[in-house]
């Protein structure tokens, strides 16, 4: 340790997504390569001398206590814990976070140091991992509200790789074995006898950590919600969700010096007839066991919805990933105006 393969892998993975801005301190971390990165981990982050760095990933993260603040993080997985190296601007983003973070470094405010805070989730405290729809994100749950973090990878490959690495590391943990399970048939294992509703698919790891994956019903619920937003214009049976992707909506803000682009996280859903943008709550659902009341907002909140037949053109940027798409719709007040004009004009 560390092997040549690991050094090459963490060096390749140590790249900040180009669409997101990070602080100087995190830019320094992103500039480290190979052995320097491993030495940085042991000198500044690792809590135990004999722990090994296994995986590195850059991702946006959300905390359960601050569900409205999405922040960039360097996520480091070791044989003992998951470390979230956070942008120092996150501390000042929300007044209610002071108790959560216990920040006591006001003396350093005006110095030349670039501070980062590191949130640590020990693997022994890990209880469950909820994987989001189409592997666009995953939520890690510990034993309290302080220990719930969602990683918005917006990339199924990154999600899959991290989950695989996490399972491998959890296999190294020495935990007391669970009691032998009683033999159950399929229906009692996956279904609730009271409601007859299928539960989400659960995989219980040998370390007793639950990995929970969405089942078909979540897509069905989403399709029903989308149909509801369409004011019953479509038949639910014929409504198919073709695409679900976590994206950003670009808002052009005209600044005094230059035009700046602010990126608003959105969930884009494409059906066979419409295009929708939703604000989605990625951190509160499904409800943690200790939650005493439901979240203040719904899981999906409609922001915008347009009919595909009103789509005039799609403009594609030629920059590298992430690709920017501009959807241009016909700006018609009455949705049925075009259809009626055509019938009147060409009718007998």
From TrEMBL:
<protein>
    <submittedName>
        <fullName>NISCH protein</fullName>
    </submittedName>
</protein>
<dbReference type="GO" id="GO:0007030">
    <property type="term" value="P:Golgi organization"/>
</dbReference>
<dbReference type="Pfam" id="PF23142">
    <property type="entry name" value="PH_PLEKHM2"/>
</dbReference>
<keyword id="KW-0963">Cytoplasm</keyword>
<dbReference type="Pfam" id="PF25625">
    <property type="entry name" value="PH_NISCH_C"/>
</dbReference>
<dbReference type="GO" id="GO:0032880">
    <property type="term" value="P:regulation of protein localization"/>
</dbReference>
<dbReference type="GO" id="GO:0010008">
    <property type="term" value="C:endosome membrane"/>
</dbReference>
<dbReference type="InterPro" id="IPR053015">
    <property type="entry name" value="PH_domain-containing_M2"/>
</dbReference>
<feature type="domain" description="Nischarin C-terminal PH">
    <location>
        <begin position="241"/>
        <end position="347"/>
    </location>
</feature>
<dbReference type="GO" id="GO:0019894">
    <property type="term" value="F:kinesin binding"/>
</dbReference>
<dbReference type="InterPro" id="IPR057288">
    <property type="entry name" value="PH_PLEKHM2"/>
</dbReference>
<dbReference type="GO" id="GO:0032418">
    <property type="term" value="P:lysosome localization"/>
</dbReference>
<feature type="domain" description="PLEKHM2 PH">
    <location>
        <begin position="114"/>
        <end position="178"/>
    </location>
</feature>
<dbReference type="InterPro" id="IPR057714">
    <property type="entry name" value="PH_NISCH_C"/>
</dbReference>
């Amino acid at each position: 340790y560390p092997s040549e393969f690991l050094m090459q892998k963490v060096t390749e993975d140590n790249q900040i997504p180009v669409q997101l801005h990070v602080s100087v301190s995190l830019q320094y971390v992103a500039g480290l390569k190979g052995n320097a990165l491993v030495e940085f981990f042991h000198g500044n982050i690792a809590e135990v001398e004999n722990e090994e760095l296994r995986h590195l990933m850059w991702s946006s993260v959300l905390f359960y206590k601050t569900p409205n603040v999405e922040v960039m993080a360097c996520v480091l997985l070791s044989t003992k814990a998951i470390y979230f190296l956070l942008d120092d601007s996150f501390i000042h983003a929300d007044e209610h976070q002071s108790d959560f973070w216990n920040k006591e470094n006001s003396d350093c405010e005006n110095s030349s140091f670039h501070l980062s805070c590191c949130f640590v989730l020990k693997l022994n405290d890990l209880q469950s991992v909820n994987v989001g729809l189409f592997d666009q994100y995953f939520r890690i749950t510990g034993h309290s509200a302080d220990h719930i973090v969602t990683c918005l990878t917006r990339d199924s490959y990154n999600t899959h790789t991290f989950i695989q690495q996490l399972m491998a590391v959890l296999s190294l943990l020495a935990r007391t074995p669970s009691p032998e399970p009683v033999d159950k048939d399929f229906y009692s294992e996956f279904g609730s006898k009271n409601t007859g509703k299928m539960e989400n698919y659960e995989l219980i790891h040998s370390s007793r950590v639950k990995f929970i994956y969405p089942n078909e019903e979540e897509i069905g619920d989403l399709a029903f919600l989308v149909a509801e937003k369409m004011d019953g214009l479509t038949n639910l049976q014929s409504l198919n969700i073709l695409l679900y992707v976590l994206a950003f909506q670009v808002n052009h803000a005209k600044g005094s010096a230059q035009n700046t682009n602010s990126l608003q996280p959105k969930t884009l859903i494409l059906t066979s007839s419409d295009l929708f943008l939703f604000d989605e709550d990625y951190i509160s659902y499904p409800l943690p066991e200790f939650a005493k009341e439901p979240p203040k907002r719904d899981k999906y909140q409609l922001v915008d919805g347009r009919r595909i037949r009103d789509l005039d053109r799609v403009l594609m940027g030629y920059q590298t990933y992430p690709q920017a798409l501009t959807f241009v719709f016909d700006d018609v007040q009455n949705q049925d105006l075009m259809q009626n004009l055509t019938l009147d004009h060409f009718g007998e």
